[in-house]
Amino acid sequence: MTPSPTELLYFIEAARTGNFSRAASLLAISQPSLSAAILRLEDNVGAKLFVRSRRGVELTRPGKQLLEQAQKLMNAWEDVRNAAQATVEKIQGAYAIGIHSSIAIYSLGKFLPNLLQQHPKLQIALRHDLSRKVTEAVANGELDLGIAVNPRARPDLIISRLAVDEVTLWRRASPRDKKAGLQPEESVLIYDPSLLQTQAILKKMRPSGAPKRVIESSNLEVVCALTAAGTGAGIIPTRIVQHANAQLVKMEGAPVFRDEICVLIRKDSRKVAAIRCIVAAIKQSF
User: Fold this and answer.
1) Nearest to 19, CA basis, from 50, 60, 61
2) By CB atoms within 10 Å of each CB, which of 32, 101, 108, 157 scores lowest?
3) What stretches of the chain adopt beta strand conformation (E)?
4) Residue 4: how many CA atoms within 13 Å on its side-chain side?
């Protein structure tokens, strides 16, 4: 068995004082507790560590060798402990944020520049993926925090709502488009098929309202640009349209999907100062 830090600490103090009674007093424990710890340590090492003398106890040769290594181990442990405390108490270190690329485009610039300027020892890595994958990665500890759309509640996560968005059909602004709905025999529908919002809207449109031609794209900014160019109608979140400053109008009577944009962290990281700081900056930016 590996000796515990407590047993090593007791051993070092006994070696330093040369007296079990004095060592126990300084450690604020009973002498039998100290003696028991030393016996466990001797069992683990497989050798006697102390011999009695007229002045108290003295280290054996194995004891002297163990003392040198034990002091190194305790110094290393102290370094590890201090580093761990610094992670919890100080705003520093490397942290990974998961976020869909489209949300990243209109949100990260609102908080990251100031955050990094205020905290020069803070390092941020970004991972772009679908919100459901971001949520899973945060829950699994692969990401430190995430900004996700409509994340499913989980017992190991803290989820805070940042904003509400709407996903619907948009077309290039013109007098005709403001009044006309989709015309299946003429229209083209542009969308990201991987989004649950897209699937929900398509389901509501079928069978009469669905167009005969579609363009699929995994990039919502491309969907928005093609829609603005008059290629067809696009299924796009409102915030994407607003950020692009695109001259688009909502299709009258089109299905609407309501999104909740949230920030999420693991419950076991809520006391980490850097994560609290990042979450506060995100909330303020929204």
Assistant:
1) 50
2) 32
3) 50-53, 56-59, 93-99, 122-127, 145-149, 157-172, 188-191, 213-216, 233-237, 248-250, 257-266
4) 7
Residue 50: CB atoms within 10 A of its CB come to 19
Over its length of 286 residues, how does the chain's per-residue pLDDT go in tens digits?
678 888 999 999 999 999 999 999 999 999 999 999 999 999 988 999 999 888 889 999 999 999 988 888 888 877 777 666 665 567 888 999 999 999 999 999 999 999 999 999 999 999 999 999 999 999 999 999 999 999 999 999 999 999 999 999 999 987 554 444 554 434 899 999 999 999 999 988 866 556 678 999 999 999 999 999 999 999 999 999 999 998 899 998 899 999 999 999 999 998 888 999 999 999 999 9
Question: Which tokens belong to 99?
Answer: 């976020």
The CATH number of the structural domain formed by 93-163+260-285 is 3.40.190.10
The fold for domain 5-89 equals Arc Repressor Mutant, subunit A (1.10.10)
Give residues with Cβ within 8 angstroms of 253, minimum separation 6. Answer: 181
DSSP-derived 3-state class of residue 158: strand
Annotated domain spans of the chain: 5-89, 93-163+260-285, 166-259
CA dist 165 → 109, 150, 158, 245 (Å): 19, 10, 20, 16
Rg (CA), the chain: 31
What is the dihedral angle through the alpha carbons of 182, 188, 194, 196, rounded to the nearest 10 degrees? 0
Distance CA 220, CA 230 (A): 16
Cα atoms in the Cβ-side hemisphere of radius 13 Å centred on 60? 11
Please say whether the beta carbons of 264 and 178 come within 8 A: no
Please answer whether residues 20 and 30 qualify as being in contact, where contact means their C-beta atoms are separated by less than 8 angstroms.
Answer: no
CATH numeric code, 166-259: 3.40.190.10
